[in-house]
Amino acid sequence: MLEIRGLAASIEDKPILKGIDITVPDGEIHAIMGPNGSGKSTLGYVLAGREEYEVTAGGVTFNGADLLAMEPEERAVAGIFLAFQAPIELPGVNNANFLRTALNAIRRARGEEELDAAQFLKTARAAAKTLAMKEDLLKRNVNVGFSGGEKKRNEVLQMAILKPRLAILDETDSGLDIDALRIVADGVNALRSPDFSALVITHHQRLLDLLVPNRVHVLAHGRIVRSGGPELALELEKSGYAAMVQEAA
Ligand code: ADP
Ligand code: MG
User: Fold this and answer.
1) What would the pLDDT profile of 128-174 be if each residue is shown by its tens digit?
2) For a pocket test of ligand 1, which of 18, 33, 41, 174 has the largest count of ligand atoms closer than 8 A to its C-beta?
3) Cα(121) to centroid of ligand 1, in Å?
4) N or C: which end of the chain has fewer CB within 10 A?
5) Complete DSSP assignment for 36-82
6) Range of the domain at 53
7) What is the residue with the minimal CA distance to atom 15 of ligand 1?
8) Strand 53-62 and strand 2-11: pairing?
9) Structure pTM?
10) Total structural domains in the chain?
11) How confident is the model over 88-100, as pLDDT tens digits?
């Protein structure tokens, strides 16, 4: 279970998050929606442990442990995975080797046996196939020259292989056609279990139709202005963010 309590965070002394409260019980998928610039990506980065962000108030526990006290690597071992809104390119780094290194670091830390190159490739190829992802993307440098859609698929591939306990997807569906959107949704749904939860940042009702979140939270100006069931997303689609944001101001 993820518990975010009164979380405030700044970047370069500029307050971005101004007191966020969200609880995501195990087994649940929560959507985060809200206008551009409201702090959605910032929330993802703070949870994943990106260094530029300073937490100025509040706290976060993950399965009872103080998440904010953990190094980013420790968070990954604890099962936290962030799919970036803008996946970074890593020239000179082979995609399959990169993924195997990440997976083996997690397995090692958990006392599990590491996978050798052949074992890993078998797993990775199977996962790529499920995602209708071209196999040669495994052999190429991480995200270098990947199309927008291929980068997003690669994020879902990472998630499928690392099998996180908490996945944070930051607009992984943006810029994807309908078939690719379904693949993102299937990727998340395939991980659904009582031990898995997800925070899905999205603007798209279509993704939420496929995922059916347990809760929807609307973030505006660094605060949660509304939380509700899946029907809240439908309301947003009809009326837009403006009314809700104003109502809360
Ligand atoms: P969202 O994902 O909801 O669109 P972000 O979390 O990306 O919003 O950004 C929230 C606010 O923080 C924006 O006003 C953005 O300009 C600001 N911000 C994000 N990163 C930086 C940075 N590195 N330096 C200064 N401001 C930043
Ligand atoms: Mg964002």
Assistant:
1) 998 888 989 999 999 999 988 889 899 999 999 999 999 999 998 88
2) 41
3) 37
4) C
5) TTSSHHHHHHHHHT-TTEEEEEEEEEETTEEGGGS-HHHHHHTTEEE
6) 2-248
7) 37
8) antiparallel
9) 0.92
10) 1
11) 999 999 999 999 9
